[in-house]
Amino acid sequence: MTGLIFDFNGTLFADADKQEIAWRQFAQNYAKKELLDQEFDDHVHGQNAELTLNYWFERVLSQKEIDEFSEQKEVIYRELCVSDAKNFHLLRGAPAFLDELQARHVPMTIATASAQKNVEFFFDAFNLTKWFNIEDVVFDDGTMKGKPDPDPFLRTCLVSAESGRIVENRLRSLSCQIIQAIFLERNLR
Could you tell me the pTM of the whole model? Predict the structure, then answer.
């Protein structure tokens, strides 16, 4: 193995509860919606903010609206993270695992549906620069397709498809083998 691509949320940091609370609170306060569990799973988990917000507001939002609404939701999310000091840390074993990978000179990066401000928030809170270069991280910049589309993983340049591996926690996402096959096909063209 010559490299790893981590999907950050759920693989290195357990935050599903905070994501769900923040999105549900946002949906209630701004979109005036109560979300069913299936609806939440279909339109929030692994999706970029544009897809989620357009679904909730039942129209195509302007980029300005998407940016503003996204940040309002993320403020709620970050406050929930910080207020839960007991659970605001990398998953048990993750720092030692990352240290071992680094000691073996295994290239690593992150491909996440999180926005840039959250990526910066995580880098600051968890000292991720110890293992990752923030410049190599793929995040939701407003143009990335949401999962299960492999776009977030395909955008990484640090890890090759031939020998890299994807660390993903969502069963709904495409299997790593399928993503790697697409990645390999696109990079061989």
Answer: 0.79
Residue 168 CA to residue 147 CA, distance in Å, equals: 11
Phi, psi (rounded to 5 degrees) for 6: -95, 135
C-alpha 118/C-alpha 110 separation (Å) is: 13
pLDDT at 186 > cutoff 90: no
Q: CB-based burial of residue 26 (10 Å sphere; 0-12 exposed, 13-18 middle, 19+ buried)? A: buried
pLDDT tens digits along 158-167: 655 555 666 6
Half-sphere exposure of 107 (CA within 13 A, CB side): 14
Number of other residues whose CB lies within 10 A of the CB of residue 38: 8
Q: What six digits make up the tokens of 115?
A: 């926005």
Q: Name the 3-class secondary structure at 109.
A: strand
Q: Using CA atoms, how far apart are residues 159 and 1, in angstroms rounded to an integer?
A: 10
Q: Which two tokens stand for residue 20?
A: 């769900």
- The residue among 140 and 81 whose pLDDT is bigger is 81
Dist CA 51 CA 69 (whole Å): 12
Q: Is-contact 10 167, C-beta < 8 A?
A: no
In this predicted structure, what is the pLDDT of residue 184? 45
Which DSSP symbol is given to 163?
T
Q: Model confidence at 43, in pLDDT bands (50, 70, 90)?
A: confident
